[in-house]
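ugh ok fine here u go
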Amino acid sequence: MRTPTPYADPYAAGVGLGLVLLASYVFAGRGIGASGAFASIAAHTVNAVAPATVGANPWLAERATLGLSTDWLVIEMLGLVAGGFLSAALAGRLRIVVERGARVGAPTRLAFALAGGLVMGVGAVLARGCTSGQALTGGALLSVGSWLFIAGAFGAGYLTMLAARRLW
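structure:
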């Protein structure tokens, strides 16, 4: 395996992400996010198994009528996965590994990752949107609530880091 190339410059990556967000407004007429893709996939899954449930639920029915191959957020998520895979392959970083600290085992690290993902998922459902859409799209639109969310998310992340760093 070749020596991995360094990670991208965070400032250049931030400018690139901003240009992607601008392009999403220009070409798709909406911002970027992630939870909507999972909602569409869930609606299609429920529709395949229990169509009566979807018919009785306007929220599910609205998402189930969109074709998965034309749903903007589903296409975005597929592009995200493909782009991440391609980026890792080109940088020589494509491997299966559980990144963790010296004092935490792989099962513990995976349990923390799963717990964190579940908490974020529940939060996205309660907030009726995901953190990426809230921070990136709402922040770009200068929404006060989005900027308060960004500050809260970074603050909570910092406090969690202080509590968990001795495990790392």
